[in-house]
Amino acid sequence: MEVAIAHMTFEEVAQAIAAKRLVIVPCGATEAHGPHMPCDTDTHQAEYVALKLAERIGAVMAPAIPYAVSKTFEHFAGTISLSIPTYQQLVYEVGAALIKQGFVNLLLLNGNRPNGTSNDAVARRLIDDLDQDFDFTVTAVSYWEPGAAAIHAHRRSGVGGMGHGCEFETSFQLATRPALVKMERLKGVYAPLVGWDLVAPGEPARTYRRRPTPRTNHASIFGDPHKASAASGAAFLEATIDALVKMMTSLQPSYEERRGNGAARNGGGVRAATGKTRKRIGRGTTAMHLK
Ligand SMILES: [Zn+2]
């Protein structure tokens, strides 16, 4: 079954809408990823995970968003960043278009950490603006988040070794596009552990400071790509996709749905059915068809 909207005819997309298939919007970025990896790393990864997830649960995938919030690395060649308001407006309009076409379940699947908080805000705004006219759900998550504990358990680098162009992303690329990874260019590159980590448990606060530049001998890396390997990448990917499938098949909305006089109905909210091969998440018009 085709999952990429980009490769479907409009009639096939209409059928996907009628079948209540979830639509996934991969949110990538175009930015420097160290001296060893391509600038489309985040877009490729968000799209790769979205495709695998869509195949597993019977969803469809919208074309990936290749430009996003990349201000951190805008002093490095190859980085093309939108401002945060422009990015949010872009994702908002993509989401609104899909909802107005009739999709009732939308997943914003993020592949670039700074997009994450923006995507949360966009999800809220879609509901705030459209919930009186359309009955839909919107979910925002960064693809590494559901499987973070399992990824953390597989890692070789210390805490602070998985951020950007790091052990995690380099392993992902080695497992999926090894021809585009130039590990020899990491020779002698200083890549210390940093003060945050994609997957390790840690403090929830985010503290920002002056951004890196090539002038300060920074390699546009946060973390330790020297510890990366294709085998680790395969393990990270398996953990990532399994966790996302599990998340999407047991999804709960943020609060229960109430209708009419305000009395909560029996089992209000989203419940996963226990069918062997097919599941429906949600009730009424937002019930989602899953494989
Ligand atoms: Zn990245």
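qc> The CA atoms of residues 255 and 269 lie 7 Å apart.
qc> done
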